[in-house]
Amino acid sequence: MADYKEMWKDLGMDLETHDQLCEVLPQAFTDVYLSQENRPENMAYYDFVVSEIHGVRPAELIEAQKKGKKVFGSFCIFVPDEIVFGADAIATGLCGGSQFWVPGGEKVLPTNTCPLIKASVGARLDKTCPFFRIADMYIGETTCDGKKKAWEILGEDVPMYVMDLPQMKRRKDYKAWAEEITDFKNTVEEFTGNKVTADSLKNSIKLINDKRRALQRLSNFRKNINIPISGKDVLLISQIAFYDDPTRFTQMTNALCDELDKRVEEGVSVFPKGTKRILLAGTPLAIPNWKIHNIIETSGGAVVCEEMCTGTRYFENLVDESKDGLEDQIDVLAQRYMGINCACFTPNNDRIEDIKRLCKEYKIDGVIDLNLKFCNLYDTEGFLVERELKKDGIPVLGIETDYTDSDVQQLRTRIGAFIEMLD
């Protein structure tokens, strides 16, 4: 990584502690990613992004701020980036995926809070992540109780706006979410000084849809019998999608897909014939959480689909681009986002149907239902998910983990036995 110490210093970061993180990440990335064989050449872009993860993109965001743009940081795929870009501002993801940040979060949160929330709070309060220092405003949401309380704590340190997501999907809930998006638009307009117009929102809807289209195209390659790209690589791309420049990300992902087209024509697979095809369902995997994919793909399995916020929930279903009026555009935004089947909703039978559908589309041999420790929503819903999949004869393994490596051997044993059982 180039020398960004002056930039980090200007952001008020704890350089000494941050250096400890910078020392660990390159080796972890080498072990998990660079040790793979026969990777697509266009993965070089994403490798570069990770090698400069706290440098290149933060520098771009700071440069944009110098030109008057605001940066909004969010933690959930329900926050509509279209509104932010429609106000000529920039949206970036902020979810923490490293154990390195968890102790910082535990200084102010109960230990029995999920690691994603603890890491996100720790990254801000310990001043060890430039993205958390750069964002001018954080956008929270009410998808779980842990997050709602965390926003109150973060709100003492940084401007915070919280969107109230309905927990059911009745007609009045769709209307309520459209009203929330309108309120969010008004807040963004006031904070940036820029109006979201019908034209600017139409353009930003297409901008984010294009990113979704590229991710859909990438995901479709994994439906082939010959799998031209590893699950680990696709996970990395999904994680980078949350904070990279959307136009550049779309271009680079489509360039990768062009290469994968040729691989499919030539019958190239990065896995041996007969490798068991695994669908991962459950809680999101924020960067740099690569643990479960690495265990599966070094234990005889191939991850070919993620029914997660860092997977199909993020890119499936586009926003209707045909609307010209602002009110209609906000309505179709509400419809698209309310179509996400998060465990925060009740009832949530559509999520189970989604998983069954994905099992057919991706020719799945088995499902691993993953829960981040202390995520009560997905943990509780896991009972229904696993029961219904078993009714359909779909093998399923439920596992719970956190960001530490203390359970790697135990998970490797359980996952390896599950994959063997699929034979």
TrEMBL record:
<protein>
    <submittedName>
        <fullName>Double-cubane-cluster-containing anaerobic reductase</fullName>
    </submittedName>
</protein>
<dbReference type="Pfam" id="PF06050">
    <property type="entry name" value="HGD-D"/>
</dbReference>
<dbReference type="InterPro" id="IPR010327">
    <property type="entry name" value="FldB/FldC_alpha/beta"/>
</dbReference>
<comment type="similarity">
    <text>Belongs to the FldB/FldC dehydratase alpha/beta subunit family.</text>
</comment>
<dbReference type="InterPro" id="IPR047678">
    <property type="entry name" value="YjiM-like"/>
</dbReference>
<keyword id="KW-0408">Iron</keyword>
<keyword id="KW-0479">Metal-binding</keyword>
<keyword id="KW-0411">Iron-sulfur</keyword>
